[in-house]
Amino acid sequence: MDISYRVTPDDVVAFNIYVTETAPGLRGLMLAVTAAVVIALSWMVGAATSSIVAGVTAGLVGGGLYLFTAPRLLRASVAAIVRRRLRSAGSRLVGDHAMKITPDTLVGTSEDAESQTLLAAIRRVVRHDDHAYIYVSVDSAYILPRTGVTGGDYDAFVDALQLAMAAARN
Predict the structure, then answer these.
(1) DSSP symbols for 64-106
(2) Which residue ranges make up each domain of the chain?
(3) Angle between helices 52-89 and 9-21 (to 10 degrees)
(4) Backbone dihedral region for residue 134 (phi beyond 0: left; psi -120 to 50: alpha; all else: beta)
(5) pTM of the full predicted structure?
(6) Are 59 and 37 in contact (CB under 8 A)?
(7) Residue 17: which residues within 8 A CB-CB, separation 6 or more?
(8) How far is the C-alpha of 169 from the C-alpha of 167, rounded, in Å?
(9) pLDDT value of residue 64
(10) How far is CA 134 from CA 97, 123, 127, in A?
(11) How far apart are CA 7 and CA 94, in angstroms?
């Protein structure tokens, strides 16, 4: 089964945001920073005003604002970094690509490269929003955007890939 598709900078940004937001430990880090913000603001405002109520209120408001804005700031930061790297490096990630499932491998091609990965070696396939991320290593994946498909059927290809992976592992 074959599929052809176009990857845009937005698709690469979406993948990097997904990786960042699902990174182990990120939620714990966000909660730890939030607790630090609450404690620091409570202490500073409480000490400045000599009011425990004002300190606790300021800490809770500051912690809430942090929890509300931090994920958005993180996404914006990741997007800016990825776009800057794509512009400066002229990445092969962006552009026209194709994939083909053979009996034993997944063959990926771009305008200037071809790679083959044993189906049994593919770590996992993640469907997230309008993308499928086909992990060929811990931190490397093919990005297959549903909206970027120019030939073939997105759902049928991803389903066929998952079946072929399962068969290759047995």
Answers:
(1) HHHHHHHHHHHHHHHHHHHHHHHHHHT-TTSEEEEEEE-SSEE
(2) 2-8+92-169, 13-89
(3) 140
(4) beta
(5) 0.78
(6) yes
(7) 75, 78, 79
(8) 5
(9) 77
(10) 14, 8, 9
(11) 5
Report which residue type is found at 160. A
Residue 20's H or E segment, with its range, is helix 9-21
Question: Does residue 130 sit in helix, strand or coil?
Answer: coil
Alpha-carbon 126 to chain mean position = 10
**In contact, 40 and 56? CB cutoff 8 Å:** no
Stated as kind and residue range, the H or E segment containing 2 is: strand 2-7
Q: Find out whether 133 and 11 touch, Cβ atoms under 8 Å.
A: no
Determine the topology of domain 2-8+92-169 in CATH.
Answer: PH-domain like (2.30.29)
**Is 156:1 a contact under the CB 8 Å cutoff?**
yes
Low-confidence ranges of the chain (pLDDT < 70): 27, 30, 89-91
| Ramachandran angles phi, psi of 149, nearest 5° | -65, 125
Please give the structure tokens belonging to residue 13: 């940004």
Residue 59 tokens, joined: 């800490």
CB 124 within 8 A of CB 32: no
Q: Which amino acid is at 82?
A: V
